[in-house]
From TrEMBL:
Protein's name according to its UniProt entry: Major facilitator transporter
A Pfam family matched in the record: MFS_1
Species of origin: Rhodonellum psychrophilum GCM71 = DSM 17998
Keyword entries, A-Z: Membrane, Transmembrane, Transmembrane helix, Transport
UniProt xrefs under Gene3D superfamilies: MFS general substrate transporter like domains
């Protein structure tokens, strides 16, 4: 007889513990997003070549995420659970890649480090998304993803400021031409430690629910066993994805095109437009690049506070996920566009505060909307497939989409990449109007 597990409501600290590993994952992503372009420039990359150097990261995610999701759906061990083995494997590989990335002595080494780092983080990240849906009843899904976003916001803020913090305690932020400064190396080393330790914390502090019927689970896995059967089922799931997922995919496309543009071009755009510095070996450039990390940290800090507000609200009442997401994305779009018009560096805090509102929503609302429309037995693979809508826009951007669009629509100056990011984010917000399924837009 099928044993139905009634999922109990969890308290804040139980949800915090099972999501805490995302602190380390976000340390990795924030250091990668905030400083890999700086590393590329230091090693001699031209500005227009930077997106192409990022191409390995989304290409890897396109392959890794659905495969890991599929495998984690079919994994169960009475001691290690379903998702936790993937947390551990990803954590070990990510830690090594994050530590060694700033020691690259050539562009191909830095691009390779980014590829390994992104692939490894993806091994851990998607099972974390699926774990929230595994553990929480639908009435707590928004709350669970928002708490996860709160942790991500903390990680973004601290990690983005790490090179600046290292400089403040006396670690040099300049080096010989072609050499990565020690402040960046120390920051990546700290990030590697936090990544591994925070994921281990979640592994040891979280219990997973077993399959509802272990015999049926094992029989279904045996029937679908095999490399080609796995790919066949993934493609079948892609073909049969819910309509809500397709509509959310359009929202995700424009959202992540915007953020990939920011990660690729924020450092060259802001150091050149606001700080008037382009010499990567100069003190002025490296001080400016540290400051960019500080301003990027603002979006992490604000996303943390916005997530805290959302966590309080979603714990007390039901929300319209679609409207929250739409207005949050539009706010971030205006934040990006304002970067072009400001002259005082401190005003970047205002711009990135608006971006932080978008970031908090991007990391919670789409997943909450999706989780209410997906078969729980396929949660991992669908979370992985859903993230194809994250990596595809990044691939489009890296293969020339950014360079063509900002020059075609706005002008040759690299600061127009931020205007392009803002325009894309506003389009993402408006695409939410396509989503009408009440099961996706409202908490149950």
């Amino acid at each position: 007889m099928l044993k139905i597990i009634e999922k109990p409501r969890l308290n804040f600290w139980q949800i915090w513990n099972m999501s805490f590993g995302f602190l380390g994952i976000q340390f990795g992503f924030a250091l990668q997003g905030g400083f890999m372009s700086r590393i590329f420039q230091t090693l001699g990359a031209e500005k227009d070549a930077i997106p192409l150097l990022w191409i390995a990261a989304p290409l890897t995610g396109l392959l890794v995420q659905p495969i890991v999701g599929y495998l984690s759906d079919r994994t169960w061990h009475p001691t290690f659970g379903r998702r936790k083995p993937f947390f551990f494997i990803g954590a070990v590989l990510s830690t090594a890649a994050l530590f060694f990335a700033p020691y690259s002595s050539a562009l191909w080494m830095a691009a390779g480090s980014l590829w390994i780092l992104d692939a490894s983080i993806n091994i851990s990240m998607e099972p974390f998304r699926a774990l929230v849906a595994d553990k929480l009843p639908d009435s707590q899904r928004s709350y669970g993803f928002v708490v996860q976003t709160l942790i991500i916001g903390i990680g973004t803020w601290v990690a983005s400021n790490l090179p600046w913090m290292m400089t403040q305690i006396g670690i040099p932020n300049t080096a010989e031409p072609g050499i990565i400064p020690d402040s960046v190396k120390f920051a990546f080393g700290i990030g590697a430690f936090v990544l591994l330790s925070s994921i281990l914390f979640t592994i040891f502090k979280t219990e997973e629910y077993p399959p509802e019927d272990l015999q049926i689970f094992q029989r279904e896995n045996e029937e679908s066993k095999g490399f080609f059967n796995g790919f066949k089922e993934i493609f079948k799931n892609i073909a049969e994805m819910p309509m809500v997922m397709k509509k959310l995919g359009l929202v995700q496309f424009f959202s992540w095109f915007a953020f990939f543009t920011m990660w690729s071009f924020a450092t060259p755009a802001i150091t050149e437009h606001i700080f008037k510095s382009t010499d990567t070996a100069s003190v002025a450039y490296n001080d400016a690049a540290d400051s960019v990390g500080n301003y990027l940290g603002t979006y992490g800090l604000v996303s943390m506070f916005f997530a805290l507000i959302l966590a309080f609200v979603t714990s007390k009442m039901k929300i319209n996920r679609k409207l929250v997401h739409m207005f949050s994305l539009i706010a971030g779009g205006f934040g990006f566009i304002l970067i072009y018009y400001i002259s005082a560096p401190w005003m970047l805090h205002i711009c990135f505060a608006l971006v932080g509102i978008s970031w908090a929503s991007i990391l919670s609302m789409p997943y909450a909307m999706l989780s209410g429309t997906v078969n729980p037995k396929q949660m991992g693979v669908y979370m992985g497939i859903f993230n194809m809508f994250i990596v595809i826009p990044q691939i489009v951007a890296a293969l020339g989409g950014i360079n063509f669009l900002y020059k075609f629509l706005f002008g040759e100056e690299v600061i127009f990449t931020m205007v392009l990011a803002g325009t894309s984010l506003i389009l993402a917000g408006l695409c939410n109007l396509l989503i009408t399924d009440r099961g996706a837009t409202h908490d149950v």
